[in-house]
């Protein structure tokens, strides 16, 4: 049957709760939806319930009150901010785990940052992304618990302290420059050789680049689902968010973690997805549900030339192999900023208070739609022909 061949594993006639951020994409999100997205969803006979978000945090409230049995997908016509809110809203429900497993959260790229769509749909074209979602395959996604103060939030994309957070959040007033503002912000700090001293404790799962490469290669061939996606959830599994194995930022450090001073830290960047923007792929070995975050740390006292080479490396795919880039897979960490009263910490591109926080990954806690069903739309770190080991 032709439709079976066209849709493959994908569910047809998806029931979609569609959120439009009227301020997204410099106010163009609504126009893009009507012109590029709505006709495709209608042609695919998707059942769409549209709602505009009115203010920051509105999508958290919508997702928290959502009837998860009435929908298959929550689609955000926005940048990366709205998906972040949706995951956190679902995470506030009394049956948070069931909601996060049952509802696929997707992005129809209509913002300035469209990382989620690049990773899962391989595009930031609203119409091509709509087509990818129509034919998208349910995919478990690792989510990360962030504890800071007395708060616990969920992160799906990345966490940053140092140059990346400063370059992103510290250049908000230059949004009119588009993606150039980010490069401008990075270059400014590189030339000044700014450092962000901190203490860092990490639970390492895959310590070396050679092992990270092998881990990625094995995952490409392993299409098994995380345990919590195999069978229907029990009453306990359907309840609140998973317990924190490593405690919160306010608890004693786990006994097998060691707090290490980093007086010269230049960049702390932890990712759950490969792309952070168009042609910006710092986490080449990231996987949707391997139960790990990909952690990059770079010293702030490397030469300016090496530092500037990082910018090009992120765009050309050579970043992973650079000798001054420390790349590990981790399941948790605690970071404590030092000797600095204020600064920027970015969680999924959103600013949070400049104070210590702890992160812990939950394997396959969330659900998204992807083209492949098990990997991102990124080249990855598979060995080149003739290459052995790393």
Summarize the structure.
This protein has 390 residues and is an alpha+beta fold. Helices cover 30% and strands 27% of the residues. The strands form two sheets. Strands 5, 6, 7, 8, 9, 10, 11, 12, 13, 14 and 15 form an eleven-stranded antiparallel β-sheet that branches. Strands 2-1-3-4 form a four-stranded parallel β-sheet, sandwiched between helices.
Task: Give your account of this protein's structure.
This protein has 390 residues and is an alpha+beta fold. It is built from 13 helices and 15 strands. It has helices spanning 2-7, 24-27, 29-43, 58-65, 81-91, 96-102, 115-120, 126-134, 163-169, 180-192, 209-221, 235-238, 304-316, and strands at residues 15-20, 47-52, 73-78, 104-109, 137-148, 151-155, 158-162, 198-206, 260-262, 265-271, 293-299, 326-337, 345-347, 350-352, 357-370. The strands form two sheets. Strands 5, 6, 7, 8, 9, 10, 11, 12, 13, 14 and 15 form an eleven-stranded antiparallel beta sheet that branches. Strands 2-1-3-4 form a four-stranded parallel beta sheet, sandwiched between helices. A hairpin with a 2-residue loop joins strand 13 and strand 14. The relative contact order is 0.17. The model is unreliable at 385-390 (pLDDT under 50).
Topology:
Layout: H1 2-7, E1 15-20, H2 24-27, H3 29-43, E2 47-52, H4 58-65, E3 73-78, H5 81-91, H6 96-102, E4 104-109, H7 115-120, H8 126-134, E5 137-148, E6 151-155, E7 158-162, H9 163-169, H10 180-192, E8 198-206, H11 209-221, H12 235-238, E9 260-262, E10 265-271, E11 293-299, H13 304-316, E12 326-337, E13 345-347, E14 350-352, E15 357-370
Parallel strand pairs: 1-2, 1-3, 3-4
Antiparallel strand pairs: 5-6, 5-15, 7-10, 7-13, 8-9, 8-12, 10-11, 11-12, 12-15, 13-14
Helix pairs in contact: 3-8, 4-5, 9-10, 10-13
